[in-house]
Design a protein that fits this description.
Largest sheet: 3 strands, antiparallel
Radius of gyration: 18 Å
Number of domains: 1
Oligomer: single chain
CATH class: Alpha Beta
Strand order of the largest sheet: 1-3-2
Strand content: 15-25%
Distance between the termini: 69 Å
CATH superfamily: TFB5-like
Helix content: 25-40%
Structural class: alpha+beta
Length: 78
């Protein structure tokens, strides 16, 4: 018997794709199909949960940038 799973096509950078694949590697709950270097087919019902986990992972790995340039040594000249 054929079983259909509703999915969402996700386009992302290869670096983000590797993080998603890493998140999915534990239980295979999110990815239906790895299509190419920048596209994944994600289970529709799991998309919100995956986004949340991806945001958490990015917070851990991406440094927080301070937007206060008052102490910056950069001078903009025109």
């Amino acid at each position: 018997m054929v079983r259909a799973i509703k999915g969402t096509l996700v386009e992302c950078d290869p670096s983000i794709k590797s993080i998603i694949i890493n998140i999915d590697s534990d239980k295979n709950d999110y990815i239906i199909e790895d299509l190419d270097d920048s596209h994944l087919l994600i289970k529709d019902v799991m998309l919100a949960q995956l986004k949340s986990k991806l945001e958490d992972r990015l917070k851990e790995t991406v440094p927080i940038i301070d937007n206060d340039d008052s102490g910056s040594d950069r001078d903009v000249k025109k």
